Fold these 3 entries.
Entry 1:
Amino acid sequence: MSGVPILEVIDLHAAYGRIEVLRGVNLRVPKGAVVALLGPNGAGKSTLLKVISGQMEQTSGDIHMAGVHVTGAKPDDLAQLGLTTIPEGRSVFPNLTVEENLLLMSYAGVSADQVFETAYAYFPRLHERRYQLAGTLSGGEQQMLALARALTSDPALLLLDELSMGLAPLIVEELYDTVGRIAATGVSILVVEQFAQTALKIADHAAVMTGGRVVATGEPNEIEAIMADIVLGGAA
Ligand SMILES: Nc1ncnc2c1ncn2[C@@H]1O[C@H](COP(=O)(O)OP(=O)(O)OP(=O)(O)O)[C@@H](O)[C@H]1O
Ligand SMILES: [Mg+2]
């Protein structure tokens, strides 16, 4: 069974109304691997994550998680299987404190103490800021909180959409160091990024999406070398 990927997407199509934006996506995330999914604006990266995470219906194609056919599964069922998603944009509750944001995660059958312990071990800065409203944190700290929340669910597969959006390069590096540490504990990760170099540094494999399809896959260094050509080539 060791060869069964944690995620396999086969010929996936999806549309907004009559406009098809996923046009036959094939993608595979091996167990325990970090896969970077790169590509220009509008390529369909976020749409792909929405379909994988059950927030949007596909029109055709298949999704398997750890060998289980999950096409059309509800977000709750996917969570049971170990899928956790951090969507594009800030996904914390701005009017709640750091601690309250974390406490909301304790309803999943995990105690508040366990939640705090996991979160603060990865991000000591969140401990310092625990009584602060999440909306008043820096952008980087908000993403740390989003990651901390995601980790409390003990995911098998983590989907990350543009963690770096709007953040300074140094903060992005720091966040990705942590993503690398999370991966080292055995969590499989599919990371969508436009900040190609930072994501490629921690990736085991990379894929490039343009125009609703994965148009290249390979080792991070191979993809880094051809990335500019693909994107400038305007295949999207
Ligand atoms: N809610 C929506 N309704 C209609 N069209 C949409 C919607 N969301 C996205 N689209 C369109 O679908 C296409 C793919 O968008 P998507 O957000 O998946 O791309 P992306 O690769 O994540 O881009 P970005 O790098 O800008 O985040 C784009 O043409 C976009 O305009
Ligand atoms: Mg996007």
Entry 2:
Amino acid sequence: MQMPNDKQPPKRSMPEVDRKARLKIPRQPLPKQDPQARRSNWNEVYLPIRLELAKAEAERCIQCPAAPCVTACPVGNDIPGALWKLENGDVLGAAEVFYETSNLPEMCGRFCPQESLCEGSCVVGKRAAPVAIGRLEAFVADEYRTSGGYDVETPPVVTGQRVAVVGAGPAGLAVAEELAKKGHQITIFDSWPEPGGVLLYGIPNFKMQKEILDAKLEYLWELGITFQGNTYVGRDVTIDQLFERGYQAVFLGFGASQGNQLDAPGADLPGVIIATEYLVRGNLKPEQLPESMREPLPDAKRVLVIGGGDTSMDCVRTAVRLGAGEVTCVYRRTEAEQTGRVEERIHAVEEGVRFEYLASPLRFEAGADGSIERVQFSRTELGEPDESGRRRPVPTGEEFSVEADTVVIAIGYGIDQDLPEAAEVDVEDWRVAIDSETGETNRPGVFAGGDCVNGADLVVTAMADGRKAAVAIDSYLKDQATKAA
Ligand SMILES: Cc1cc2nc3c(=O)[nH]c(=O)nc-3n(C[C@H](O)[C@H](O)[C@H](O)COP(=O)(O)OP(=O)(O)OC[C@H]3O[C@@H](n4cnc5c(N)ncnc54)[C@H](O)[C@@H]3O)c2cc1C
């Protein structure tokens, strides 16, 4: 994960509040679906909250002048400012505070790792449970969306300048929105049939109902942004051709979507599937997928997921909802080294997922029908730290096997190297190299941001990159216009 930004909290006078009294307000209960019930539905875990509860939770914010939550937020949301409006009943005003610095508060409130960002630095959290910033952000943004906040009343004044955005994930959507609001004409190209990037083709419905993404996209189309799906830039159309077609700048936000493969015998057996394919075939309608992925997943009774991050949690919990009786997650280190959100693991355990730690796959074995039947594992123990700073798993020599009729490989993502090569942009350590201030690549007029620059990271950091690049692209376009005049 990227380091939080170095922005200072906005200068504003903090309201006078009785901090001691506020510290005594208990954290409000945030209602969740019962784990047994949610095993068989695709609805979000958290149930909607009432305004009175949201106001009471917002009142737990002690309005501390240092506001470390703001500096911990990669987009510098003025969290105390928003919560002050919320506790005073100005829900839409609170949402507008988030929208000043963020394009996707309804999503960040749902799936940012708040425990290591805003809530992790909340001063209240040093004495009690931190303020539930994420849930409150999602609450006010939901109210904003459902009460017409996305209606475009005055269309932006058109500049006549055109920008091509490659990738319709959080980075691409943010850059497109910011530039469209300035009147530029934006086309987003994506290799998937529909826009959203991982927000659609990855994150399952039980983390975010897809109506939320649909509403955001509707708003972007109203701003005049156009989308061209099923288009792999670098092959179906090149960057040179985009410039020839009259686009004056290009933003590369093509993510890190290449699922890492396991190099073990039998890893290509039928029934062994890579995480993204499993998630999209399990979560989306066939018509949202390319033809090669439209076949429904076979019914599986025993699903084994290899890997321990957020994607693995999405896979195990998808397997539960698809009806697998036995779902096991195998991770080569211990729970202490697991990346991803603790909350997601708790949800998985509550939903009946079994965890097997300290085990690394040795080989995949087929049954009589030629499909996967079991995976043979080597037990591991932790050795010296590796380059990630986490202790390296070392095989002990002990072996065991786990039976499964579907095995999902969720061991991280890499960046497609074909597009940067075709685009003739510099790459450093497999990532697109940019000027960190502007997001511009070595190629004039070509900017980049999100996972293709940071490596597999977060929705909020991708969006932050998109916002930053939009500022630089706008000023690049102004320079171009001045030169042409
Ligand atoms: C399963 C899963 C769960 C996750 N859960 C969370 C979470 O809970 N919280 C969180 O903060 N983050 C999560 N992440 C990470 C987060 O989704 C990413 O960091 C974020 O989506 C990156 O945004 P992006 O815009 O850079 O790329 P992406 O969202 O990956 O979008 C890139 C888009 O570019 C398109 N593309 C790629 N190559 C081309 C090409 N050559 N031509 C045209 N289009 C192309 C892709 O099809 C894709 O639509 C998760 C990731 C995964 C995979």
Entry 3:
Amino acid sequence: MAKDFIIAGIDIGTSNTRTVIAQQIRGEQQLRIVGVNVTPSIGIRRGVIINVEDVAKTINEAVEGAERMAGFPIKQAIFNIGGSDIGFASSKGVIAIGRADGEVSEDDINRVIGEAQIIQLPANKEIVHVIAKKYRLDDQDNLKDPLGMKGVRLEVEALVIESSSLQVKNISKAAYQSGIEISDLVLEPLAAAESVLTKKQKELGVVMINIGGGTTSLAVYEEGELLHTNILPVGAGHITNDIAIGLRTSVEVAERIKLEYGSALASGVSKDDGIDLAQLDSKEDDVISRYHVAEIIEARLEEIFSLVQKELKLIGKAGLLPAGAVLVGGGAKMANIAELAKDVLGLPIQVGFPLGFGGILDKVDDPLFATAAGLILWGGKQPEEKRVGLSNIKAFKMFSRPTGDAVDKVTGWLQRFLP
Ligand SMILES: Nc1ncnc2c1ncn2[C@@H]1O[C@H](COP(=O)(O)OP(=O)(O)OP(=O)(O)O)[C@@H](O)[C@H]1O
Ligand SMILES: [Mg+2]
């Protein structure tokens, strides 16, 4: 019988936690988004969980909002993992092909990737992704997908991405406390890239830059392959703090100044333009220079793009990505950001929107939803046995989430992190 699937993604961000619930309907190519929620985050600093209880509360609120919209509850979700404490290692795996006729099967590919996972891990790190870069089958090298080919010995060269054990542990605890099972963890920039980059851009060479509240993450692709990724501990929230310090206003007023009057390019703002702070807060009476605000914003964003440029230099790709840079996250919505990014990076720039959904809801059609939408698309690629059928979900019972109910359903290595 035709069966629909439910996929939920929870993007725990420094500023906001976003939940998206999608339905995969048999016979339809694209996922349909049926539930969306944005909840301000508490308990997170620069992408790192600093208070598990607060994050659990945030997840609860974010999930309940999205469930209410979807009309059914969720039991499990794919979560992002952020925080700049990530590590990388190159690794190799080798196996003998299992089948007697020498044809490479799915199982061989999983086994060889499993071999590549066996590395000496630093004490405080966990593997979150093992990304196959290329395969070698006997003497045929540089293979992208050896499935179905014939040979004896299969080798993989892989990029292992590690995250802080503490962060993995804290996400697991927070999810557990909110009664949601983690079906997968995806590094934030890889999730964001999943939803906004096209196959063609990844083939040509592109960098996805996600400017969040507390972090800026990037993912570089070329010839369809992930070349590099990183999470830097500076984001658009730092602009707000800079404005608050520079103009001696409260953080709330600084945030409003940034959103309502901000520009990434001071040169485009008249020096005579003033902002009457009394309009934003009755306790204020100053009129401040809009040009000065733009100078503050430009300085911080220039720093952020210079840090990204440093990463690109590190891999020899500065100025050399024909499909340019795709900007997402809240910071990408700053007025004139594309001009500034172009100046610093020397690349064509565009602002990215989530792609690949049928009937996308207006709310999700936004650079702010790149990560959450990417988590859903990531889930859509999982094998069927890992997915949840709509028929498995009981009738909609109003939010008596059974705390801790998820524990015995958590599989694999995540289990170790549960209390
Ligand atoms: N229209 C806008 N113009 C400028 N900045 C914006 C706009 N909308 C949101 N922002 C800023 O974007 C930031 C939040 O972005 P986002 O929601 O992507 O971050 P996050 O995912 O919570 O954080 P992180 O990914 O760093 O953990 C805030 O600093 C906010 O002020
Ligand atoms: Mg984010």
